[in-house]
Amino acid sequence: KAGVTQTPRYLIKTRGQQVTLSCSPISGHRSVSWYQQTPGQGLQFLFEYFSETQRNKGNFPGRFSGRQFSNSRSEMNVSTLELGDSALYLCASSLRGMETQYFGPGTRLLVL
Amino acid sequence: DAKTTQPNSMESNEEEPVHLPCNHSTISGTDYIHWYRQLPSQGPEYVIHGLTSNVNNRMASLAIAEDRKSSTLILHRATLRDAAVYYCILRLYNTDKLIFGTGTRLQVFP
Predict the structure, then answer these.
(1) Is the Cβ of B96 closer than 8 Å to some Cβ of chain A?
(2) pLDDT at position B92, please?
């Protein structure tokens, strides 16, 4: 079974731009979660989608948004990028929720 | 707020047991304790989880204190491939969110 894939793997943007990251979950998994990882704050939960609905949300500003498609693939969008948004963005999938999660390799975003 | 506390780093020699501690004094009765590890340049990988009783799987054992305010991840025989950052995580029952700790960086020496 193929693992969780994330595209792109690396991205460089400038302040004020917006970015869209993509995540393809393991086949059959319906829950997709997104996390931000930085050296200063560690791993922080962004949001979770299940069956195309946002089911859970972390403490991030509204500039961070996401969606899930009928095939369970998910996208995350960050608008009006700030320097502090530079991070590794990780996507994880699971069958139903926060039981065993399978993480992708992440997208490393650098904001200049 | 729920949180976990772990030592920043630990060292071990190959083929020796490793005990990675975690304090979670704010845990509630229905929160699960999960452990994940993150190898260099990879996403985190599930290791084990438990609620009240000690748990074993092919990767590790999880020992949970009777009052559930602490737990210990046990690697029975460390290998060089076990060098990673180990995260102790609370899975909150009421919100189903994962609260990650800062992690313990484990170094394994040959």
Answers:
(1) yes
(2) 87
A49 has pLDDT over 80: yes
Residue of B nearest to A90 (CA): B43
Contact B46 A44 (CB under 8 A): no
If one counts every other C-beta atom within 10 angstroms of the C-beta of residue A1, the result is: 7
**CA distance to A20, A29, B16, B19, per residue, from A8 (Å):** 9, 21, 39, 37
DSSP letter string over A4-67?
-EEE-SEEEE-TT--EEEEEEPPTT--EEEEEEEETTTEEEEEEEEETTEEEEE-S--TTEEEE
Residue B80: per-residue pLDDT: 96
Where is average pLDDT lowest: B16-20, B31-35, B95-99, B105-109? B95-99
Phi, psi of B82 (to 5 degrees): -85, -5
User: Residue A95 carries which DSSP code?
Assistant: S
pLDDT value at A97 more than 80: no
- Beta-carbon contacts of A111 under 8 Å, excluding residues fewer than 6 positions away, are A12, A13, A14, A15, A81, A82, A83, A84, A85, A86
Measured distance CA(B108)–CA(B27) in Å, rounded: 30
* Tally: H helices and E strands in chain B: 0, 10
* CA proximity to B27, closest of B110, B73, B88: B88
Q: What is the model's pLDDT at position B29?
A: 84
How many CB atoms sit inside 10 A of residue B65's CB? 12
Q: Which residue of A has its CA nearest to B89?
A: A43
